[in-house]
Design brief:
By secondary structure, the chain is an alpha/beta fold. It contains 15 helices and 13 strands. A 7-stranded mixed sheet has the order 2-10-9-8-5-3-4, with helices on both faces. The chain has a 4-stranded mixed sheet with strand order 1-12-13-11, sandwiched between helices. The chain has a two-stranded antiparallel ribbon with strand order 6-7. Strand 3, helix 4 and strand 4 form a beta-alpha-beta unit. The longest helix is centred in the middle third of the chain and has 22 residues. The termini are far apart. It binds pyridoxal-5'-phosphate (PLP).
Length: 418
């Protein structure tokens, strides 16, 4: 098919050309004396991304799932109790992974479409007088439902309950797109991956650990080998890795962080909010509902759109892909077939998103969903147009003669004229 595939799954996201170019290089010796400069700069700058001064970032070849495992196994022992509100498929998968490591998980089921219930968490922690609960698992941005939780409110609940549990936060689809404040929220283990807001291919599991989390390693008896932080800490101290790192991914990460800081983190978050608002305007105009139940849960990186009863959302996704070359995300777990997801994170602007909304709208109409032609696209376009940034003054063009005179040179045209 001619033209570009429109990749609008909520990760992997589009990899900008700049990052592709930065990764397009010959392999090199990861034990050379020149190598440490690259990882050392990455560790320094990942701290800025996580908004931490005290935390220590780790980069594993792997993915978000690997970073989940690293977070748990380095800080806990089999039989330890965890509290985990479950409001989507990724929270569910993290809980299952924890159980396989012999951890006992008190699952707090929450309706899918809502987020972490700070009030109920406070009650449960306050009732745990013996402090048997060792950790709390929170998914910052539940990619399966398009729900963002208020991690700051969770921290306040933990403090109000005066509970010392470690706070584990999955920000796989939040980091680098939605504000994340590791130190302010006193997150102990922050988990992420490369293929979402960082705009890289999948291939890195990224973790950031607080001093408390690092201290917990001494007592933690879960089996760990590849993901052992101890080996990483030793090697990373001199800018190396205990095994062969994914060197090209590291160059990509360098470029990604440079791009994020050039745009400015706060501007990156504002852009995602702006893009998300346009998608939500489209969903309203279609007369459809988001899986997220209320504005407080709306995610700025992914919107999960419920399809009407009697329609299988998988058909919409299939038609969008085969007919219009648009990749949308499917419903996962218990919402399979009930929704499709539009990813709006990473290297993205309004017009790209309008293309995806047009494709989603066409595919929905093809599948018999009664959305008015052009309605969602028009609503999003009008939102983007009416909230567009004021134009900066156009630079006044100087005639080449004037430039040359300003530089003290004789104008070539003047020479011809005389
Ligand atoms: N957590 C969340 C919120 C995710 O969205 C994902 C993947 O989409 C994961 C964890 C798992 O990450 P990975 O697929 O990189 O292993």
């Amino acid at each position: 098919m001619a033209g570009r595939n429109f990749l609008f799954v909520p990760g992997p996201t589009n990899v900008p050309d700049r990052i592709l170019r930065a990764m397009h290089r010959a392999m090199e010796d990861h034990r050379s004396s020149a190598f440490p400069e690259l990882p050392t700069g990455l560790f320094r700058d990942l701290k800025k991304l996580f908004k931490t001064t005290a935390g220590q970032p780790f980069i594993f070849p792997g993915s978000g799932t690997g970073a989940w495992e690293a977070a748990l196994t380095n800080t806990l022992s089999p039989g330890d109790r965890l509290l985990a509100p479950r409001y989507g498929q990724f929270g569910h998968l993290w809980i299952e992974l924890a159980k396989r490591h012999g951890l006992r998980v008190d699952v707090l089921d929450v309706e899918w479409g809502e987020g972490a219930p700070a009030g109920r968490i406070e009650e449960i922690l306050a009732a745990d007088q013996q402090h048997e609960i060792k950790g709390l698992l929170i998914v910052h941005n539940e990619t399966a439902t398009g729900v963002t939780s208020d991690v700051g409110a969770v921290r306040r609940a933990m403090d109000a309950a005066r509970h010392p549990a470690l706070l584990y936060v999955d920000s796989v689809s939040g980091l680098a797109s939605i504000d994340f404040r590791m130190d302010e929220w006193q997150v102990d283990l922050a988990v992420s991956g490369s293929q979402k807001g960082l705009m890289l291919p999948a291939g890195l599991g990224i973790l950031c650990a607080s001093p408390r989390a690092l201290a917990a390693r001494d007592q933690a008896k879960c089996t760990r080998a590849f993901f052992d932080l101890g080996e990483m800490i030793k090697a990373n101290a001199t800018g190396y890795f205990p095994y062969t790192p994914a060197v090209l991914m590291l160059y990509g990460l360098r470029e990604s962080l440079d791009m994020l800081f050039e745009e400015g983190l706060e501007q990156v978050f504002a852009r995602h909010q702006h893009l998300g608002e346009g998608v939500r305007a489209a969903v309203r105009a279609w007369g459809l509902k988001l899986c997220a139940k209320a504005p407080q849960w709306y995610s700025n990186t992914v919107s999960a759109v419920m399809v009407p009863d009697g329609v299988n959302a998988a058909d919409v996704i299939d038609v969008a892909f085969r007919r219009y070359d648009l990749a949308l995300g499917g419903g996962l777990g218990r919402v399979a077939g009930k929704l499709f997801r539009i990813g709006h994170m990473g290297d993205l602007n309004e017009l790209m998103l309008l293309g995806a909304l047009a494709g989603a709208e066409m595919a929905m109409r093809d599948c018999g969903i009664k959305v008015a032609a052009g309605s969602g696209v028009a609503a999003a376009a009008e939102y983007y147009r009416s909230t567009a940034r004021p134009l900066t003054p156009r630079p006044t063009a100087q005639a080449p003669d004037a430039q040359a005179q300003a530089a003290g040179a004789k104008s070539p045209r003047a020479t011809v004229a005389t």
